[in-house]
Design brief:
Structural class: alpha/beta
Bound molecules: glutamine
Radius of gyration: 15 Å
CATH architecture: 3-Layer(aba) Sandwich
Shape: globular
CATH topology: Rossmann fold
Distance between the termini: 20 Å
Largest sheet: 7 strands, mixed
Number of helices: 5
Order of helices and strands: EHEEHHEHEEEEEEEEH
Number of domains: 1
Number of strands: 12
CATH class: Alpha Beta
Length: 201
């Protein structure tokens, strides 16, 4: 039985590794569509904002006039941002000379690329605390952002060297790392299961 048959998930497809997210959704037989324009958000149950380059994603969000519809989508629907996607969900970006304009959907302060540049990218196994259970997941940190401050009421679901790397507030989930580059769907399944449970409440 396909427990995801009722839902459809969008993947913001302006720039970045959106194709990897699509592949993982296909693996779990989840209906999905790319979002490039506001109208593509219609009737979606959730959205994934991929990793990539937040400066570019931010500019394209403005160019394609997506900002207001993404913000209102994120006020009620499930959104998961990975890496650059997490930067886009943040409330504030430190030393933001590049002028990235985040969507301010979760109260976290971010430092871009603070885990180091490309040569310092790494893969590791993390323990994620998901619905009270500790689950292992492969995680890739690629020019990854650091979470410098976590707001009150924002839950920390995973740490790396005692720093928050996976956070959640209500319907918004944000990870500084990628899980979509491997076949590890642990975190995606968490995102989808919560979404399905909330729909059935
Ligand atoms: N450092 C990138 C940025 O600031 C994010 C890298 C990634 O998404 N893998 O946008």
């Amino acid at each position: 039985m396909n427990k995801y048959k009722e839902i459809e998930i969008g993947v913001l497809a302006l720039q970045g590794d959106y194709e990897c997210h699509k592949n993982q959704l296909e693996l779990l037989k989840v209906r999905n569509r790319y979002v490039k324009l506001s109208k593509h958000l219609e009737k979606l149950d959730g959205l994934i904002i991929p990793g990539g380059e937040s400066t570019t994603i931010s500019k394209l969000i403005n160019r394609f006039d997506l900002r207001d519809s993404l913000v209102s989508f994120g006020q009620t629907k499930a959104v998961w941002g990975t890496c650059a996607g997490m930067i886009m969900l943040a409330s504030e970006i430190e030393e933001n000379q590049a002028g990235v304009e985040p969507l301010e959907l979760i109260d976290i302060v971010i430092a871009r690329t603070a885990f180091g540049r490309q040569v310092f990218s790494f893969e590791t196994e993390l323990t994620l605390t998901l619905n009270g259970k500790n689950l292992k997941s492969q995680a890739s940190f690629i020019r990854a952002p650091r979470i410098k401050r976590v707001g009150k009421n924002v839950n920390i679901l995973a740490t790396y060297n005692d720093e928050a790397v996976l956070v959640e507030k209500d319907n918004i989930l944000a990870s500084s790392f990628h899980t979509e580059l491997e076949n590890d769907t642990t975190l995606l399944e968490y995102f989808l299961n919560n979404l399905v449970d909330n729909l059935n409440k």
